[in-house]
């Protein structure tokens, strides 16, 4: 985990009891975690900025940055504690508090980070109707099954919260549907193989050991 | 037997039998305990038998349970005599034999050696496969049941399903106050930082852009060269070397990350500007045309007034023509307006041309003025020289003297300068040397500091690693401790074997002794027989002639028969003693089977059974 010089300066401010009081530190920590994990509500921190507002703002930014960077790089809480104690002169109490919060919320921080990114649309549901085509304008007798399939997909929107659910339909014959099913089965089998690779390799290891 | 009991009880406890701590021999086992232990062993050996762990109340059900356990044991290959009575009316020896058999049949714990994959790729593959397995094992969850597109498991882990609630990585510039070098900031900046700059969370246009913006902020800070005033010393050198490179990267990065934002803002500004300009233009044009129109109209009015005066008199006469005339006038006015517009445009062009010309001319003028000034100065110099010309010699000499004197003063000054310069230069060199010394020293210190920091970090890492190793080893050790029992057992077995061999030696010794004794006895009997026959012959030969010899012979014969009788008696006594001992042993074994108590129990159970049967019959009768 690399921390830039500005953020490092902010962290030093955060660890300095003369600038950020203990009470203020707890409030900042609480607010920071809730901002990252639950972005629906913004905590009000204006009354904290009355005394040394610039330092509070700087340390708040540094706190948010360090939480995000640590979660992004999947740093162990113990390693983070060593970094904070050694490089940023954190007191033991403050360090324990921050590490405790980090330990508790690490997975949720990572979940919040996972919201970043763009993906192709994701199929969440499917509905279908089966038609039997008896005859067409140019053919006396057709006698084919026609499957009308509708995929419900969800896709991320550019900005703002929530997702958009869209549908797209397509028509296919029996053979084409069979093809699709085979493809899907292939995909499922592939995923299962990935899930079992660990066991396979383990079995290999044990065989070798014997 | 104590040893065997201890091993059996330990094994039963491992199987999951609830044997109390103060029980240390099979003698103390109750019927319930025996049944439970046997059933648990059978469960482990052959899962799925479905035998009850406790005895039922009904006597016949008890009998059935005992019989089925016995049958299960027989199926496993128990060769001894076994039946329901073995478990229900237990004798210690039978039970022991059965338990020894069952514990031998217990499946050995196969050495499950799970080899952990090593290396980063192996660990990663394992994690991936475990996650996929977990996701495959979990049931399907509809979209609206997921919390912001994420499924949370009970153990606190999560997996993202679908792509709901995703946000693209859009970052924006956020401003963070820098208090570390606040001395270099102006008062106004500090004022702004303290009172007006919003928190980082409020600087982003949308809260979803906070995380990308913070990540970008940190990355940008890493890529831009660090300020020497407050930057970390360790970074300074490398930054100096790579300054140009990082500069370049940072610039491109800057362009990359915030290009859309900036561009859009710039574009917005442009648009705004253009808008304003256009508005202004339109305004001005509008105003102009209005003005023009008004002027035209006023002109028109004037003209109309002028022209009106004439047709006014004939207004009544040419009522119908009036309209046409007005229309014509309108046409004319329009044409005039067009013409005026063109004229105006031409005039505007002229104005433009003239302004450019004016600027050119002003430039030329300033240039000319400069030339004039130069010339004036030259003229003054020339005038002075001309003034000096009439007394050329004297002036020349005066000039020469002044030149010489000035040269002398120059030399003097140079000498003085040298005088001042030399010590100053020396001082400067000295100071510079000292400075460089100091710099190198501080550099060394910085290096040492950096090394120390690196070392401390490495040591910290090592400590953490070691602690992990320690905890791992502790868990392994805890796993291993179970095997201590085994070693104790082997030790005990070895002791038992030693005891047995010792006993065997003793038995051999006793056997040898007995054989020796037998041999001696045989020798003695032989000797006795031989001496008896010799004495018999001797005395018998004399007995024909001598009366006393005959008496002696008779006495000898009675002595011999008495002695042989005595020997026979002794032998018989020994046999009887042996028989007594055998019988005593038999009594002991019979007593161990506690037949009496079992008999009592059996008779009690029989009575209970009879009662149950009677009750059942009564019920049957009552029903029928």
- Structural class from helices and strands of chain B? mainly alpha
Largest sheet of chain A: 3 strands, antiparallel
* Number of continuous helical runs of chain A: 6
Stretches of chain B where pLDDT is under 50 for at least 5 consecutive residues are 110-114, 228-239, 255-292, 294-309
What shape does the CA trace of chain B take?
A: elongated
Q: What Rg of chain B is obtained from the alpha carbons, in whole angstroms?
A: 65 Å
Terminal CA distance of chain B reads 57 Å
Rg estimate of chain A, integer Å:
28 Å
* Main β-sheet, spatial strand arrangement of chain B: 1-2
Helix and strand composition category of chain A? alpha+beta
Number of strands of chain B: 2
Q: Which outline of chain A best applies?
A: elongated
Helix content of chain B: over 70%
Tell me the number of helical segments of chain B per DSSP (H or I, 4 or more residues long). 16
The assembly state of the depicted protein chains is heterodimer
Strand content of chain B: under 5%
Strand order, sheet with most strands of chain A: 1-2-3
Low-confidence stretches of chain A: none
GO biological process, one term (chain A): sodium ion transport
Pfam family, one (chain A): COMM_domain
InterPro entries (chain A): COMM, COMMD3
Protein name (chain A): COMM domain-containing protein 3
Which structural traits does this protein have?
heterodimer; A: 210 residues; 2 domains; 3-stranded antiparallel beta sheet; 6 helices; elongated; B: 624 residues; mainly alpha; Actin-binding Protein, T-fimbrin, domain 1; 78% helix; COMMD3 (chain A); COMM (chain A); COMM domain-containing protein 3 (chain A); CCDC22 (chain B); coiled coil (chain B)
